[in-house]
Amino acid sequence: GENVEQHPSTLSVQEGDSAVIKCTYSDSASNYFPWYKQELGKRPQLIIDIRSNVGEKKDQRIAVTLNKTAKHFSLHITETQPEDSAVYFCAASGLKGAGSYQLTFGKGTKLSVIP
Amino acid sequence: DGGITQSPKYLFRKEGQNVTLSCEQNLNHDAMYWYRQDPGQGLRLIYYSQIVNDFQKGDIAEGYSVSREKKESFPLTVTSAQKNPTAFYLCASSIAGTQETQYFGPGTRLLVL
């Protein structure tokens, strides 16, 4: 099955700096890659996603890049703010058979933005 | 994500007891999922359902059971066979058959007395 590795597990940045989180996946058939943000005790919420026919996608201060050849994708947050502090999860979705897809999640990155 | 509800917010289980976690959605989604989240871990898939009256095991199904009698509802039972049930349980839904966004409920935190 799919295996997703996420690094780093913790990341501290000064407010205004950029943050980068990287993920690798094992199943070359995976073709959908969402990123979720989870604040303490809350539900994960989608912040951005990318599909395999696209190499990069941006949404304001957030961007995701995908390298299908190397099987890795990254989340970039620019001009970080204290409210960006949370745990971020990457995930990869591949076809599991009978038209069903499963998301496999990384173990998360705890981002702390220091004012 | 506001269209998915989970109850209760906190649940306490005594040894040997089965407990059921509720998940309801009004998004008209065909697919529903149950995940378990432990500290320092990602989300791990317990069970998922693509259609009413059908469901499949995920990566950690042992000690859990589900039913899907209605499109809107996907309850999860944590049985006494699950020896380490303490965790945060998240339900999600998505449009079935396509790689669409999974929307999560607010979660249920299960604790063992």
Oligomerization state: heterodimer
Number of strands of chain B: 11
Question: Poorly predicted ranges of chain B (pLDDT <50, ≥5 residues)?
Answer: none
Through-space gap between termini of chain B: 31 Å
Beta-sheet strand percentage of chain B? over 45%
How many helix segments of chain A?
0
- The portion of residues forming beta strands of chain A comes to over 45%
Task: Give the structure's gist in a few sentences.
Chain A contains no helices and eleven strands.
Keywords:
heterodimer; A: 115 residues; mainly beta; five-stranded antiparallel β-sheet; 11 strands; 61% strand; globular; B: 113 residues; seven-stranded mixed β-sheet; four-stranded antiparallel β-sheet; 0% helix
Explain this structure.
- The complex is a heterodimer of chains A (115) and B (113).
- By secondary structure, chain A is mainly beta.
- Helix content of chain A is 0%, strand content 61%.
- In chain A, strand 9 and strand 10 form a beta hairpin.
- Chain A starts with a strand and ends with a strand.
- In chain B, the strands form two sheets. In chain B, strands 2, 4, 5, 6, 9, 10 and 11 form a seven-stranded mixed sheet that branches. A four-stranded antiparallel sheet of chain B has the order 1-3-8-7, with no helix packed on it.
- In chain B, a hairpin with a 5-residue loop joins strand 4 and strand 5 (43-51).
- With 113 residues, chain B is mainly β.
- Chain B is globular, with a radius of gyration of 13 Å.
- The relative contact order of chain B is 0.34.
- Chains A and B meet through strand 5 and strand 10 of A and strand 5 and strand 10 of B.
